[in-house]
Amino acid sequence: MVVDVHVTATALELYGLPPEDFTAARNLAAKQANDAGEGLVGAELKALRKPTLAARLANLTVHSDPSGVDELRKLGEDLRATHRASDRRRLRELTLRRHGIVR
């Protein structure tokens, strides 16, 4: 349980960093955990993957505008349903909405 809390707290910090800083900071955090005798924490931190651009944007939204997460989640649900329904007109509308939210 303590391992999970430490990994989660560190992951939140790491995913708040600019992408170009992620790998070095992750490796340093894993090394510090290993050096402190926390091998399991170090291994879990080392396994964290650099976020994709989409994940990076979602992380920024969570940190800067938590209410925006609900809007993005709803948009994702709408996009999936519209794609399954093959509704081209609605898909264009939602794509424009997505561009507006992401900017």
Produce a short descriptive summary:
Helices cover 83% and strands 0% of the residues.
Helices and strands in order:
Layout: H1 2-15, H2 19-35, H3 39-46, H4 53-64, H5 67-85, H6 88-102
Give structural notes:
The protein is mainly alpha-helical and about 100 residues long. The chain has 2 domains: about 1-50, no CATH class; about 65-100. The protein contains 6 helices and no strands. The chain is elongated, with a radius of gyration of 18 Å.
Task: Using brief descriptors, characterize the structure shown.
0% strand, elongated, 103 residues, mainly alpha
Helix and strand succession?
A: HHHHHH
- Largest sheet features: none
Query: Number of DSSP strands?
Result: 0
Number of domains: 2
Number of helices: 6
Strand content: under 5%
If you average the pLDDT, what whole number results? 88
Q: If you compute it from the alpha carbons, what radius of gyration comes out, rounded to the nearest whole angstrom? A: 18 Å
Molecular shape: elongated
Helix content: over 70%
Q: What is the end-to-end distance? A: 38 Å
Oligomer: single chain
Low-confidence stretches: none
